[in-house]
User: Which sequence fits this backbone?
């Protein structure tokens, strides 16, 4: 579980980035509305939202509090119902020092699988020799997209099977 | 879905079959096989999904141990039999090729 103080600190860290991104996006939006055709006018806002998501994930990774601890947001409750009983929930207290890109990669995966992947990566990276660490991180990151595809395919099949089994 | 017995999968199975009753964790397995963790992890997941391997989180207090818990893997009884049979039936890559792969860290 993550302390509220730490959570608040992360939130505070995120606010200036969000403000800057939204300011730039709104300025670009004004330019687009004035000079560009209608089809382009939502582009800056779209890019801004994507940028905020990326920056948010990098600053406030789904790391420690989601590694078996308290989880946030609307999706998390549904996620726990959907995945909670698989025994995969990682123990809390993962290590820091993992690159934010790995948290981002974990978000590509189904929630429970992403948390487990991240927790196992944390566990391994905390024990690996420093000389081999960068290479291990690269290998995790390179394999993440195909792993995410495999895990989502499996998740979709699992949900389809669960749906079929549901009594009418 | 049938498990494809790639060279990397064979390496992992060989390592696990070294002592089928023993538990091993990711880093140990990577050191034994020479595979990178990004390669070994999906293989372990697939093996687990097929029921050949079981896994569990280590039961420790990370603060006291000063490291995160490890995820331990071991072959299931059925998995050990199936893995032995699969390896016996697999086209064996040359030992040199396996060594080269291990030294190179394995492709993802």
Assistant:
């Amino acid at each position: 579980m993550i302390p509220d103080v730490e959570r608040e600190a992360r939130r505070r860290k995120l606010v200036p980035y969000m403000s800057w991104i939204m300011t730039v996006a709104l300025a670009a939006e004004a330019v687009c509305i004035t000079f560009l055709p209608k089809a382009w006018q939502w582009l800056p806002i779209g890019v801004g939202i994507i940028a905020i998501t990326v920056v948010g994930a990098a600053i406030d990774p789904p790391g420690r509090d989601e590694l078996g601890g308290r989880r946030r947001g609307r999706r998390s409750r549904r996620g726990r119902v959907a995945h909670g009983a698989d025994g995969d929930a990682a123990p809390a207290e993962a290590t820091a020092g993992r690159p934010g890109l790995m948290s981002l990669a974990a978000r590509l995966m189904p929630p429970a699988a992403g948390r487990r992947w991240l927790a196992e990566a944390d566990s391994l990276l905390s024990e690996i020799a420093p000389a081999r660490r960068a290479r291990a991180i690269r290998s995790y990151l390179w394999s993440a997209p195909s792993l995410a595809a495999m895990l989502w395919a499996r998740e979709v099949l699992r949900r389809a099977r669960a749906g079929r089994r549901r009594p009418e | 879905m049938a498990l494809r017995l790639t060279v990397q999968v064979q390496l992992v199975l060989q390592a696990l079959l070294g002592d089928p009753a023993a538990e091993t964790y990711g880093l140990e397995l990577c050191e034994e096989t020479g595979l990178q963790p990004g390669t070994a992890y999906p293989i372990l997941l697939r093996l687990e999904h097929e029921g050949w391997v079981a896994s569990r989180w280590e039961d420790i207090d990370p603060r006291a141990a000063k490291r995160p818990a490890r995820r331990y893997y071991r072959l299931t009884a059925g998995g050990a039999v199936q893995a032995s049979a699969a390896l016996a039936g697999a086209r064996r890559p040359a030992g040199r090729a396996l060594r080269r792969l291990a030294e190179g860290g394995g492709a993802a």
